[in-house]
């Protein structure tokens, strides 16, 4: 594996989670078949051991290789005020991707997390769990909030997640990527050094040190990251209903915070204002300057400050809005 970049990154992420008091675990989901048969589905997650003593907060990752990389800058600060739970979505990380099941849409991912909630937060936890999702995870967070309602889910943080994405947006994204690829999934899951460098340029506003590594190191790293469950993830992306006639964006009853990186090239900033307009004028939008698609990684201090301010304020003055 060359210089061992992947083990080093995994070690750094794991160390951040352990330092925050989170430990890895697995939960088996209830069967979805009438007779209780079928292949078991499991969700791997990180959380503090024992019953929650703080309000529960679910951090939902995007379409990356694993949750720990995307949230390593948040678990420490947020764990001081919340019982932080970080799951791997189905078909990601160490969670299962049952071959006998259809590829899960973002709504099916949300349903799986809702099924898992009793095991994730225990029986003595507060009735409501706050959720925060980034990119694809924002699709799931929105689907959870809409399906479960404010009695079980809320408040909601959606970061850099284009809930109004269309086929035209996908075509524009491929043009920004350089015209070499024909499907967004091929840009988002590269297997060669050229594709990986372009993905980093599209994802981050600031130049990444890993972009300076030799081609063979980057290539080997990408192949290890994105070969696992590749076909299942392609099917999963194709199963996403956002951007199809099966999905309609409607306001939520919960308090909602939108966060966007100023220079996002995957979901450009103009989409943030369009999403906010559809979700309602009471929705709060925060733009983090000098960041791209992952502001929680590029400016974790500002991201954490915004999220904590929103979540703590929502605890004091919960939303009184009704379903629309």
UniProtKB/TrEMBL annotation:
InterPro entries the UniProt entry points to: AB_hydrolase_1 (IPR000073), AB_hydrolase_fold (IPR029058), Meta-cleavage_hydrolase (IPR052370)
Domain AB hydrolase-1: 57-305
Domain of life: Eukaryota
SUPFAM superfamilies registered for this protein in UniProt: alpha/beta-Hydrolases
The protein's name in its UniProt record: AB hydrolase-1 domain-containing protein
